[in-house]
Amino acid sequence: MTGEVSDDLSLEGSLAELEGVVRQLEDGDLTLEESLKAFERGVSLVRRCNSLLDGAEQRIEILTGELPEDLTR
Amino acid sequence: MNRIFKVSELNSRIRERITTDHRLCDLWARGELSNVVNHRSGHRYFTLKDGDAQISCVLFRGNCGGIDFQLADGLNVLVYGDVEFYRPQGRVQILVKAARRDSGLGEKHLELELLKERLAAEGLFDAERKRAIPAYPACIGVVTSPDGAALRDVLRILGSSCPAKIVISPALVQGEGAQESIAAAISALQGRADVIIVGRGGGSAEDLSAFNSELVARAIYGSTPPIISAVGHETDVTIADFVADLRAPTPSAAAEMVRPDVEGLREHLGGMEARMIRSLSVSLERRRQRFTDLGRALSGRRMRGIVSEERQNLDRMMDRLVSAEDRLVDQLAGRLELAAGKLDSLSPLSTLSRGYCIALSERGLARRTSDLASGELFELVFADGRLLCRSLGERVD
Q1: Helix or strand or coil: residue B170?
Q2: Which pLDDT band, with edges at 50, 70 and 90, does A44 fall under?
C-alpha cells in the first residue's frame, strides 16, 4: 500500500478503499509504520475523492451519430 | 345430380372444413356468459352470447388452470381458443383455452397480459435478481432518442456538478424498428456504463409499445450494468418497468436516482478524515506511553535526554494533530512520517526485543566504533538487562 493514488481509481473504488483504511486504523492492530502508511494512503484517497468531486467537468459522449447542437458545449 | 350424404359423412365434411380454417384458430371472442355448467368431470360448458347471437363453448379441465375467476352467468368475458365442430351433435363450439374478465380492453392488451405472464413465469421480474444502483457511478449510460425531451430532462437534472461521465446511446423510441433499436442501444453500453437509464417521455399506449416488447425485456434482463426504466407514463406500467432493476416514473426522476449526493459525500469524507486523525492520535498516545515507560526503565543521561526530547516533540505533534484543521492534514502526515522514522529507530523496545543491543558509554549512545576508545568500559543494553563490557579495540579483518 502506498500513498500514491492512481488516476484511474474511480470514486466508488476510492471510497471503498478509504472505508477499509479507516477501519484498519480504528482496529488499531497496525504497527506505527503501518499506521502512518495507512494514514497517508487515507489522506491521498480523501484528496482523490475531493478532486473527483471538484473537477467534475462533465463529459457527455454519444455513441453513434452526432450530439444535437443544443447539447454540445 | 346432387350427391346424397349420410349425416355422419356430412358432419365429417363440415368438421374438416372448420378445423382446417386458420382464421378460426387461436382467436379471442367477446361476450356474456350464460348456461354455465360445471360438470362432475371438471369440464365446463357454457354459452357465449351477445345481443344478436350465441355460440356453445367447452372448457376442459386441463385448461382451467389459467383462469383466475369463477365462471358465472351474466359475466362479460373474453375467451381464447379454437372453433371446432362437435360431430355427434352437429354443433359448432369454441374449445376454450383461456378466458379473461372483459374490462373493455383490446386484443393488444390481452396479448400483453399473456406476454407478461410468460416472462414472469420465466423469472424476468423476480425481485431477487434486481441489482442495487451504484451510489457513485463513474459512467451513466442513457438509452433514449437524442432529439427527445427525455434526454434534455436527464441532462438538466444531472447538471454540471455531477462527477460522472454521461454516455448517450441513441435509440428510436417509437414506431417501426424501435424495439430492435432500444435493444441494440442497451447492448452498446455493456462494459462502458455503470448504470443505464432506458426511457422516453410520455406517450400513448401505442407510442410506448416498444417498451412492452419481449425483445426490450430480454435486453434489459441480459444487461450487466443495472438498468433504471424511465418511461414517462402515469397509468400503466410497461414490461420494461417490471424487468428493470429500478423503475422511475419519468426520465427526470431516473436522473435524480443516479445523481450522486455530492454534499453528503463531502460530509462523509470529512467524517472519515476526522476518524483517521483520531485513531492515529490514539495510537500515537499509546506508543508515547510505552516509550515513556521504557525511557524510565533505561539508565544513561544521554538516553534519557533523547527520550525526553522526542517525547516533547511527540507532545507538540499530538497537540497539533488533535486540533488539526483539514488543511493541516497533509502537512502533518509528512511530519508524522519523519517523526515516525526517528521514533522507530529510537524505540528501544522493538529493537532490543528483536535481539539487538545498544552500546552506552559514559558519553551516552555509542553510534560508531570510534565512539568507544580501546580499553574503555561500556554497557550493552539488552531487552532484559545490561552487561558491563570492555572494548578490546576495533576489529580489522
Answers
A1: strand
A2: confident
CB contact under 8 A, B273 and A50: no
Task: Please state the domain extents for chain A.
Answer: 30-54
* Domain, as residue range, for B377: 358-390
Task: State the nearest Cα–Cα gap between A62 and chain B, in angstroms.
Answer: 5
**Pair (B147, B256) in one structural domain:** yes
Q: ipTM value, please give it.
A: 0.78
Q: A11 and B269: CB-CB below 8 Å?
A: no
Rounded to whole angstroms, the Cα distance separating B199 from B268 reads 32
Q: How far is B269 from chain A (nearest CA, A)?
A: 6
Measured CA to CA, the distance from residue B78 to residue B216 in angstroms comes to 28
B5 touches chain A (CB under 8 A): no
In three-state secondary structure terms, B64 is: coil
Check residues B352 and B301 and name the one with the higher pLDDT: B352
Chain A residues interacting with chain B (CB cutoff of 8 angstroms): 10-12, 15, 18-19, 21-22, 25-26, 28, 30, 32-33, 35-36, 39-40, 42-43, 46-47, 49-50, 52-53, 56, 58-65, 67-68, 70-71
Q: Give pLDDT tens digits for B69-78.
A: 888 888 889 8
Predicted confidence (pLDDT) per residue in B125-168, tens digit: 999 999 999 888 889 999 999 888 899 999 988 876 677 889 99
Count of helices and strands (H, E) across chain A: 2, 1
B91 CB-near residues (< 8 Å, 6+ apart): B56, B85
The CATH number of the domain where B183 resides is what? Answer: 3.40.50.2300
